[in-house]
Design brief:
This protein is an alpha+beta fold. The chain has a single domain, classed as Pnp Oxidase, Chain A (Roll), CATH 2.30.110.10. The chain contains three helices and nine strands; from the N terminus they run βαββββαββαββ. Strands 1, 2, 3, 4, 5, 6, 7, 8 and 9 form a nine-stranded antiparallel sheet that branches. A hairpin with a 2-residue loop joins strand 2 and strand 3. The chain starts with a strand and ends with a strand.
C-alpha cells in the first residue's frame, strides 16, 4: 500500500497556489442540506479576497441556496500529472453579494479574472438567467500537500 506524507502549506504557498488557479468547488448549506457547485474565481492575493460571478436560472436550487446567505466553503485542488502529489486549499466564511454599481476599477479587473465555462448549457433563455457578483474574504483558510510514495507498495 502506498504511503502518503501530508504537509500543511504555508501562507505563501497557499497564496501562490490560489493565484495559479481559477476554478474550485463552492459548497453551501441551508437547513442541514448541502449544495456544491463548480465555480471559477478571480483572486486578489494582496488582500486574500476571491471574486465570483455566479449564474442561476429562475427555478434553480443554486438561487435558493444563495438567497439564504449561507456560510460557505471553497475548495481548490490539484493533482500532479504523475499522480504522486496532491494539493488542496479550503477557505471558509461568508459570501458578500456585490452591486455592480459599487465596484471600483480594481474590483472590476478581478471579476474579469473569473473565467466563464468553455461551454454553457441552460434549460432556459439567457434573458431568464441571473448573474450575480460576489466577494469572498475567508474567515479561515488552510492548505495541504500530500506526497504519495508508491515505492512502499
Amino acid at each position: 500500500m502506498p504511503l502518503a506524507e501530508e504537509t500543511d502549506m504555508s501562507a505563501a504557498e497557499i497564496d501562490s497556489f490560489l493565484r495559479r488557479h481559477e476554478t474550485g468547488v463552492l459548497a453551501l448549506a441551508a437547513a442541514d442540506e448541502p449544495y456544491a457547485i463548480p465555480i471559477s474565481y478571480g483572486y486578489d492575493g494582496d488582500d486574500g479576497t476571491f471574486y465570483m460571478r455566479i449564474v442561476s436560472t429562475p427555478d434553480s436550487e443554486k438561487r435558493d441556496f444563495l438567497a439564504s446567505s449561507p456560510a460557505i466553503r471553497l475548495v481548490v485542488y490539484e493533482e500532479a500529472d504523475d499522480g504522486e502529489t496532491y494539493w488542496s486549499v479550503v477557505a471558509t466564511g461568508d459570501l458578500e453579494q456585490i452591486d455592480p454599481s459599487d465596484l471600483d476599477v480594481e474590483e472590476i479587473e478581478q471579476y474579469g479574472e473569473t473565467r466563464r465555462p468553455l461551454f454553457e448549457i441552460w434549460g432556459t433563455s439567457k434573458a431568464d438567467l441571473r448573474i450575480q457578483l460576489y466577494r469572498f474574504k475567508p474567515d479561515e483558510i488552510s492548505g495541504r500537500r500530500t506526497d504519495v510514495d508508491r515505492t512502499a507498495e
